[in-house]
Structures are given as C-alpha cells and as structure tokens.
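Sample entry (214 residues):
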Amino acid sequence: MPAGVDDAPILYSFRRCPYAMRARMALSIAQTPVRLREILLKDKPAEMLAASPKGTTPVLIDGDEIIDESLDVMAWALAKRDPEDWLAHDGNVLVAENDGAFKHHLDRYKYSTRYDGADREAHRDEAMAFIEKLEVRLAASAYLNGDKRTLPDIAIFPFVRPFRIADEAWFNAAPVPHVQAWLKGLMASDLFQSVMKKYPLWKETGEEVRFPGL
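Predicted structure, serialized as tokens:
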C-alpha cells in the first residue's frame, strides 16, 4: 500500500457486480482513495460479513461508518468531489426503476433456471419496457440527462450491460439504436475500463489495492 493511504477507508468489491461497478466509478471520478479488497461473492470474507451481514458488495468502511448500499457509496464519494456535477441532475425515478422492476426481470431473464417457474422470454420483454423508456430519452440527447454523463447514466448502464450479455445477438438486433450506442460508449470509456482492472483476491493474498490508482 503506497504511503499516504494506510488509513484510507476500506472498500470490499466484487469486480463483476454492477452495484460495485457504479460505486467504483463514483470513487474514481471523485478521486477518493480507498483500500480496495477484491472478493468473490461465493467465498465472502468473514471480515466483510461482520461489517455487513447481508453479504453483498460494495461495502465501504470509513472508521466507524459502514456504507453498504451502492448509491450511498456514490453519494459519499461525490459529496467530497464531484467534478462532472453528477449530483446536480435529476434521475432518481429512473434509477429506482432500474434497481427495482428492471433488476427483478433482469435476474429472471439472465438466470431463469435459478427461479422456479420463471418464463425467460416474458421477463426479457418486461425488462425491455425499461430499455425502451431509456431509448426515448436517449433519442433526444447523448445521455439520460443531456449531453454529458451524470449519475443516472453511471448508476444504470452496469445493469443494461448484463441484459445485453444475456443474448447479445438479440439485443444488438433490437430496435433501440440509441441505447446500444449509449451502452457501447460508456463501456468503452476510460472511466469504465479503469475500474474493471483485475486485482488479486484479498482473502487469498491479504493484499489491499490503492483505488483509484495513480
């Protein structure tokens, strides 16, 4: 751990978790250093579970404060520094729908075998209703709140990404060209690429990583 960050907050993160992705992007934009502990959700460290028994990522530990909701981690970071004014734009309704109904249908579409009686195509169609709502907004501007990315873009696109991955050919053929371009651009961004680096597993190595990197 580089000098100067020994007492930085701890962040438990799972690289492929969309909730952890959006938290890492906010921390990166805010340039707020943390000691990242990379984990596997199928092998959760006892230390993380002691701090947050619900066992999901991200978990941020800042002294006696424990923040284990991704939007709260984003707000915590952006309250310190918000160079792109992500917090200045409305989008709470969209983000709430993403985290609620869309995530519900996404899980039952992508992982239909895990849910008794789940109709994969029916859940895909229900999830697509949200994608179509995004399409309407993105037809009018490059991002959900205008010509610059804001918090709703960063909070939502990590969930649209696995919706696409579930059946890439189907998604790429769907009549949502603005969503497709928006997703492609955000996935290719330096910000996203920088937070998707692979790190050693903390439980195996005890190695904390300075995040964001220099």
